[in-house]
Amino acid sequence: MLLRRVFSAATACAILCAGFTACSSQKYPEGSVEYAYDPEAPSLYEEFADYFDVGSAINPWDLTEGTNEYEIITNQFNIYTYENDSKPDHMHPSEDVYNFENTDKLVEFAEQNGKKVRGHTLIWHSQCPDWFFYDENGNDASADLLVERIKEHVTTIVSHYKGKIDTWDVVNEVLDDGYGLRFSDWLRLVGDYDGDGDDYDFIEIAFRAAREADPDARLIINDYSLESNTNKAITMYNMVKAMLEEGVPVDGIGLQMHVGYDTDVQLVRDNMEILAGLKEINPDFVLEVTELDMNCYTWGNEDIEVDLTDEFVEQFDNTYKELFNIFLDYAEEGILKTVVFWGYNDGASWLNGSPAGRVNHPLLIDRDLKFKSAYWAVINTPSEREAQ
Ligand code: XIL
């Protein structure tokens, strides 16, 4: 059954050429199939080239030439986000120190290989050094001081990568899970700075500074649960609509999409539809999927070893497949431009280890860098659709 699912005209040749072996490890249930790492396997970004860019979060060590990891990331993806190294704590650890070295390497790698880079992220409440929020006496920074710092931080970083970083997550996770804006230090200290009645001024200031520093970069507001929390999607829609009407240069919304294997795909489609409505205000408005992965555990579950039964793997693969069919629909409408996975192999995913010892399998490539059946389910979606 699994065999039938993974085979299609598009991939049969690659699979047959590479050969396959019966499962010998504990990764798959008995009787299923595990593929050896296959450098000749088709390429995700090439298969989806007519629709959207396909990327991955990576780390500096993935850029070591000659390794399987390097082969996979160059063969499979055409856009990259650093998992941690372009965040405020790494890039701007203290007021006078900017740390560009690692992101420079990613940009150089991208230039040499004809790839794109997403900058993640300029303004975030997490992985952000405290110095931003205090004055020289250790008191809360004044609104003026923090606004100056936001401008300086955004301008310095975005200018450094002018013409080199294609897309910036200008702000990350600024919404609350209930309603409205997250009560972060950015919001608390900057507030309604211009006195016009709204309190998203720190966001507005960051976007305006980013646009000025690199007029050609795509500027994104990125958040999680937008695909599952309809209140949050509506809040995002309303806030971005107001910002667009005021001329704030927001080019698109990033949906992180850290979803579960049992996620409600109809809800994903419906919530994306809400956000896609912003195209009526700006015809060039885009949506991006920025951090896709699929947790094998449900919320609140404390288990550490999921049982990868045939039924489980089938549901997991189908959810991935249905998501990609939704992505293809939105790409055909001209609004979805990018799909980035949060990592590329299960062993290195941030979803392992919490709670301690947890083994997770959220991606398309397993711990041994072998392509999973989910990889084939996903990569076949464009050809299956075109064959219909
Ligand atoms: C995560 C990284 O994957 C981890 O390595 C790090 O310890 C914490 O941050 N939303 C985001 C990402 O925007 O930056 C987060 O990345 C995952 C959730």
From TrEMBL:
Membrane-crossing residue ranges in chain numbering: none
The enzyme's E.C. designation: 3.2.1.8
The keyword Lipid metabolism is assigned to this record: no
Family: Belongs to the glycosyl hydrolase 10 (cellulase F) family.
GO molecular function terms attached to this record: endo-1,4-beta-xylanase activity
Cited PANTHER family: ENDO-1,4-BETA-XYLANASE A, GLYCOSYL HYDROLASE
Protein name stated in the entry: Beta-xylanase
Any one of the GO BP annotations: polysaccharide catabolic process
Keywords (A to Z) from UniProt: Carbohydrate metabolism, Glycosidase, Hydrolase, Polysaccharide degradation, Signal
Keyword Coiled coil in record: no
